[in-house]
Amino acid sequence: MSLKIVVFYGSVRGERQGIKAARFIVNTCQHRQHNVALIDPLEYQLPLLDKMYKEYEPDKAPEVLQRMAQVIIPADAYIVVSGEYNHTIPPALANLMDHFLEEYFWKPSAIVCYSAGAFGGVRASIALRSMLAEMGMSSIPSIFPIPQVQNAFDQNGVPHEAKYHDRVKRFLDELEWYAYALQHARNRQCVRSECAQQI
After folding, report:
1. 191-199, Cβ contacts within 8 angstroms, sequence gap of 24 or more
2. CATH assignment at residue 168
3. What is the count of structural domains for the chain?
4. Domain with 174 in it
5. What is the DSSP string of 38-58?
6. Contact call for residues 85 and 91 (beta carbons, < 8 A)
7. Segment 46-60, tens digit of pLDDT
8. Which of 151, 126, 141 minimizes the C-alpha distance to 171?
């Protein structure tokens, strides 16, 4: 059974390299027969956070937030692809995700981190773990670090080394386990709520 997955990517730099990693994740999830949407701040151009999506009257949110909501709300899982800026995440990524909150609840997330150096952005993943937990979409135990991202993939997200296919399989297997388990739990809770309303 396919899942609905949203991939968040956070860089807006002119020669950004992490978009290659994001494309690799999107391509791999699609190959695994999932319905995948990429949320890229260059496509979904948001102002600095003033009002969250939930703070607007129904159907009154700006068009860009409405488009994001259409893919975020029905999603079963989220994958966050983040570079490391000053030991934390890119500001565009935080701004992108902070426009929503309850829409993420009870769904798992997974962290893909990258850097131009040897450590693969793991310090950004530390910041992300607490952020994602606070947002109600706690991250799975494994992370997917990518060192020297500029050399790891071509522009279409095709890896230069086969090891990335092996690593990402284990990573996505884990995310899928949590996604299916929480999907089942949410469905059971919906059934119980409907039953309670009928009593």
Report:
1. none
2. 3.40.50.360
3. 1
4. 4-198
5. EE-TTTS--PSSSS-GGGSPT
6. yes
7. 999 999 999 999 999
8. 141
